[in-house]
Amino acid sequence: MPFARDILSTAPAPSLEQLEARQLFAFGQADQSFGTGGRVTFPLPGTNTPLVADIEVANGGDIVAGGLDGLVRWDAGGALDTQFGVNGFAAMTVVGGAYRDHDVASDGKIYQLVESPAGGGVVVCYDSDGQLDNDFGAAGVAVVSMSPAFSPIALVVQNDGKVVVAGTVRTDGGKGSVARVYRLDDEGGADLNFGNNASIDVHLGGTAAATPVERDKLIGVALASDGSIVIGGSSLAYSPEFYDDEAGIFRPVVYGDSVFAAARLTPNGQPDAGYGAGGVARATYANGASADAASAFALKGDGAVGLAAYPTDRFAYAQFSPTGAVDFNRTDTLNNLGKPFDMAAEHDGRLMFVALPPESASGSGLQVAYIAPSGEISNVIQTSDSNAATLDLFEDAPAAIAVANDGNILVGGRPSDGSQGYAIVKIDDGKTNVGRPDEFLNARGNDIVRDEFGGVHFAYFDAAERVLKYAYKAPNGLWNAPVTIDPAPETGHYLSIAVDPSGRPGIAYFDGTMGDLKYAFSPTPGQWDTQVVESAGLVGLYPSLGFDSLSRATIAYYKKTGGDLKLAVLLPEDAWAYELIDEAGDVGRSTALTAQPLTGRWSIAYTDATNNAVKYVWRTKLKTWQIETAATTVGGADYLSLAYNPFTEPAGVFQKAAISFYDAFAGDLKITQSDGITWSARVLSTQGTTGFHSALTFDAFYGPTVYFYNRSADKVTRVTDSYYDGATADTVVEGGGRFLSVFSNGTTVDLAYFDDVEGTLKVRSIPVKA
User: Fold this and answer.
1) What is the pTM for the complete model shown?
2) How far apart are CA 408 and CA 426, in angstroms?
3) Which CA distances in Å does 450 have to 216, 332, 454, 457, 508?
4) Which pLDDT value is given to residue 546?
5) What is the pLDDT of residue 47?
6) Residue-level pLDDT at 648
7) Three-state secondary structure call for residue 322
8) Is 192 left (phi over 0), alpha (psi -120 to 50) or beta?
9) DSSP 645-660
């Protein structure tokens, strides 16, 4: 039938509330007192591609950045120290050398580690003014090793002026490697009282008969408070590929498990027998064998060691205790982290790190997060401040991280505008006594959506205040404080959120006190307009909101008074028009509104409680509604989700609809799919009372993916039915999953779920299943 006007509801009843957009949590905000807008840069024109490879903070707070071209120094506030070197810059002095690391001694001298062009390494010493220190080595340069087999990685300066240099030395004809540590005396000569005549080899890993070659990867070296020397990295044992002449066959490479490893040496360079096993602590990567080495290391003030890697496309991290025991060894699945570049120990025991964002999180700068002492990872922020007037860091280039004297975080890299030079961003480190901004203590029923710009919009019912609330995460990961959308009590038990083509959010929701369907819209950030959509009877349960091609808000909903399925559209004159879609029996619960991909016309999945059926209705070219029975059940269906297969052939004819649902009689998760003529239903999971809060997407190649809460196992499960692999299931979340909401844009999946262990509702973003 055509749209009809409801005289009682055409006049909107707005309630306008001005809300300040503010950050809930300080972590990640630019420190505006530093440089310009929290940023400093130093141009370095030349043939290299300079970037900040390491940041060191002097005792007085001065910041020294090092990289391929040399060293730059700023004061604690971000002002360039023009008295350092030449106008703030000390150029690389080793012709053809490759910068590896630097450290600032307690007396202000700076020691720079450089890999020599012919192999081996040297240490260059600068005085506190950035000039070569002629009292060290030969005119400020001391040789560590001239062996081309040695690759220097990192150095640290002791309080007595002795310099510890760590790296790896190639073995097995270049196929393997082992960690090696050298020490120079305070004048740059070999310290023969260290190790075995000034050096010592440390086996970070081990070998076996099937994997006889050890490949150590050293990341860093640091000094413990008692003067012990700590190195960190990883190791992989493997057997290289070769042609077996005796057997007459080709033997492929065989990998063993990769291990995180840390070693502690006594001040005189011998393995510390009280640490780990014979001076080395090891932990096999939590996700098993991988050829990907560790890439981030830090020593905490209490002597604990943090390490991180990115094996098999998943962030992995571990911490060893001060005695070498494993505090934790995990992989992260709920933060969408990329490869870690660097790590630094915060004063309060957190491990701060900077990482390369994966493709699904690109566009907003480098990732920054921290590992709490408990082993939990914080919310992830990114270095871009979404302000075109400020310079950001190039997110595809390596980066460095350090802790400033005031506890805030320095992140350095390459300027994002493509210019040559060094760039540093200073951000707030956050407050440990404030909860994560993506965890909501009293949230229950909710919905989540991501706009095309990368912003995440989250609406939820606050069970303590009994009102509807909204929170927003910017593309760079910073959350605004939650705001109350409608202060009327019992608003938001049923709700649906969507964004218009401009990225502005709207929320359709149920007013439990008045029994009305209501709508809220944010025309500008911090401002919300609310109005009643329909108030005749008990109306507005199971709302599902969308925006059409004209940006008009459209809501499908269940009117309990009468048991009808209805549709409401907000017209340009700010009035609502209504359409009764189905009134045959008790119909319209568990409504899911979705636009048909090719035509943009609306379609709706819903339940028919009278006939225990799953229904599907779609709008035809003639602007009528075609109703189909998609599936029948014995005891009814709930938690419907509607999506379209984007890989339908022949292209341009129609898109195949699919509906996932919970079969209440069997307690199963099911899916029903249309071939354009008939519907076919099948079971996806039969583990009992499973399929609650299901959400259907088509992230899998040629097949559906369904996320759902398995109440029997108390977890969130993902079932993927791909063209190549068939139906496979994996666990996304352990220990919770009630009130699950899911949004997927094909690359990133945003989840909101209730954690039963911690008693809070969490929002996380993960990549789609590869």
Assistant:
1) 0.91
2) 7
3) 42, 22, 6, 6, 16
4) 98
5) 61
6) 58
7) coil
8) alpha
9) ETT-SSTTT--EEEEE
Contact 393, 416 (CB under 8 A): yes
Q: How far apart are CA 493 and CA 29, in angstroms?
A: 33
**Residue partners of 682: CB distance under 8 A and separation at least 6:** 670, 671, 672
Collect all residues with Cβ–Cβ distance below 8 Å to 546 and sequence separation of at least 6: 498, 553, 554, 555, 593, 594, 595, 602
Two tokens, residue 6: 């409801």
Q: Residues 585-740: name the CATH superfamily.
A: Fucose-specific lectin (2.120.10.70)
H or E stretch covering 249: strand 249-251
Tokens of 547: 């925006």
- Distance, CA of 734 to CA of 729 (rounded, Å): 14
The list of the chain residues with pLDDT below 50 reads 1-25, 650-653
Q: Identify any residues that bridge with 39 across adjacent strands, giving them in sequence order.
A: 36, 425
Residue pair 741/717 in contact (Cβ under 8 Å)? The answer is no
Fold for the domain defined by 436-583: Neuraminidase (2.120.10)
DSSP 548-589: -TT--EEEEEEETTTTEEEEEEE-TTS-EEEEEEE-SSSEEE
Question: What is the distance, to the nearest Å, from the Cα of residue 765 to the centroid of all Cα atoms in its chain?
Answer: 7
Distant-in-sequence, close-in-space partners of 246: CB < 8 Å, separation ≥ 6: none
Are domains 436-583 and 585-740 of this chain identical in fold?
yes
Strands of 625-632's sheet, edge to edge?
Answer: 587-595, 602-608, 613-619, 625-632
Residue 359 has φ and ψ, to the nearest 5°, of -55, -35
What would the two tokens of residue 3 be?
Answer: 């749209």
State the Cα–Cα distance between residues 715 and 591, nearest whole angstrom.
24
CB of 269 within 8 A of CB of 313?
no
DSSP-based three-state secondary structure for 512: coil
Contacts of 446 (CB under 8 A, 6+ apart): 458, 459, 460, 461, 495, 739, 741, 752, 761
SS3 173: helix
Q: Where are the domains of the chain?
A: 202-337, 436-583, 585-740
- Angle among Cα 435, 438, 443 to the nearest 5 degrees reads 90
Q: Residue 573: which residues within 8 A CB-CB, separation 6 or more?
A: none
pLDDT score, position 649: 53
- Residue 522's identity, in one-letter code, is S
Token duo for residue 479: 């959350």
Amino acid sitting at position 310? Y
